[in-house]
Specification:
By secondary structure, this protein is α/β, with parallel strands linked by helices. The chain is built from 9 helices and 14 strands. The chain has helices at 16-25, 44-61, 75-87, 101-110, 226-231, 241-256, 259-279, 308-317, 342-359, and strands at 5-6, 67-72, 93-98, 115-121, 145-147, 150-151, 156-157, 169-172, 189-193, 204-209, 284-285, 297-302, 320-321, 332-335. α1 crosses α6, α2 crosses α6 and α3 (75-87) packs across α4. Bound molecules: pyridoxal-5'-phosphate.
């Protein structure tokens, strides 16, 4: 069988070596006689798995000591509520930058808890660009500024970090975390659902600065309180143990690849090859402003949309799966996270050239 490449936006491809290791350890984790799925989260075996995963993530992202790392459930969507519940801290307002579908969801949820000021929006451009920082109408009374560094659906990515002064910056990094090095100290909170670039669905990673924990909005459920999770080492209740373990295997794999500087180089190169192929042809088009094209999610359209379904059918036959664009954007979307090998991008580019030659 020839290689299959999975371009799903999430849950997404995992490194083959990680899945093989998980398979080898599935029934008996390192002589313990137990599967990781069967272990007590408070037993010494799982405690070592959990501790190693956190240590490796801290090393990969160079997370400063005054940040807590939480391994939670509830997805990025729970963070849309957890952020205001923990960060409002007596304030009534928060700033949001609207660069696409996920920003909008975060804005909608925050509106249940506070007054949301949309300080900048790219909606007029149909979310194909990012408003320049100079145009942002930031509010000095805002409790925090929330943005989405990579919009998974629109394929729009910030290649810079906004400076919000003393107002904590909050980032939904679900589809970009671990794709490149990060200066964590620029952020108050970073959160990510695992199923794009970390591991399987069901795990949510939160990195939160110490001083932003411990003062929740009255009535906040315990499960939505950063400090309670931090004080209990993310074991306030039963954590998603198997997802945590798999994330740990991914962190270890990333270290073996040379860490995030090495990943950044690979990701930049992978995405550049694909964007170059798209822009070199009149048959394909990228809807996104060149300055904010995502390294992770590459939407592209066919000049003749009536060929879309044929493109998808032939691509699947060639082993290139899940290339259908989100219904709100149309066309195609290739998600090329860390675990997508360069050969997968090469195979996609070859297929696109061949399809254009025969159908263009
Ligand atoms: C996938 C995604 C989400 C939603 O994540 P869930 O884990 O399903 O809640 C939110 N934000 C971004 C940027 C995403 O890519």
């Amino acid at each position: 069988m020839s290689a299959i490449y999975n371009f799903s936006a999430g849950p997404a491809v995992l490194p083959g070596a990680v899945l093989e290791q998980a398979q080898a350890e599935l029934l008996d984790w390192r002589g313990s006689g137990m599967s990781v799925m069967e272990m007590s989260h408070r037993g010494k075996e799982f405690m070592s798995i959990a501790g190693q995963a956190e240590a490796d993530l801290r090393e990969l992202l160079a997370i400063p000591d005054n940040y807590r790392v939480l391994f939670l459930q509830g997805g990025a969507t729970s963070q849309f509520a957890m952020v205001p519940l923990n960060l409002l801290r007596g304030k009534q307002q928060a700033d949001y930058i609207n660069t696409g579908a996920w920003s909008k969801k975060a804005i909608g949820e925050a509106g249940r808890f506070c007054e949301v000021n949309v300080a900048a929006s790219a909606e007029d451009s149909k979310f194909t660009t990012i408003p320049a920082l100079e145009s942002w109408q930031l509010n000095s009374d805002a409790a925090y500024v929330h943005y989405t560094p990579n919009e998974t659906i629109g394929g729009v990515e910030f290649h810079w970090v906004p400076d919000t002064g003393d107002v904590p910056l909050v980032a939904d990094m679900s589809s970009t975390i671990l794709s490149r090095p990060l200066d964590v100290s620029r952020y108050g909170v970073i959160y990510a659902g695992a199923q794009k670039n970390i591991g399987p669905a069901g795990l949510t990673v939160v990195i939160v600065r110490d001083d932003l924990t411990g003062d929740t909005v009255a009535g906040t459920p315990s499960m939505y309180d950063y400090k309670l999770h931090a004080d209990n080492d993310s074991m306030l209740n039963t954590p998603p143990t198997y997802g945590w373990y798999l994330a740990g295997l991914v962190f270890d794999w990333l270290k073996q690849q040379g860490g995030l500087a090495a990943m950044a180089e690979i990701n930049q190169r992978k995405s550049a090859r694909l964007y170059d192929a798209v822009s070199a042809s009149d048959f394909y088009n990228s809807p996104v402003d060149v300055a904010c094209q995502s390294w992770m999610n590459v939407p592209f359209t066919l000049a003749d949309a009536s060929l879309d379904s044929e493109f998808l059918t032939q691509a699947a036959t060639a082993g290139l799966l899940n290339l259908k664009g989100h219904r709100s954007v149309g066309g195609m979307r290739a998600s090329i996270y860390n675990a997508m090998p360069e050969a997968g991008v090469g195979a996609l580019i070859d297929f696109m050239g061949e399809f254009e030659r025969t159908r263009g």
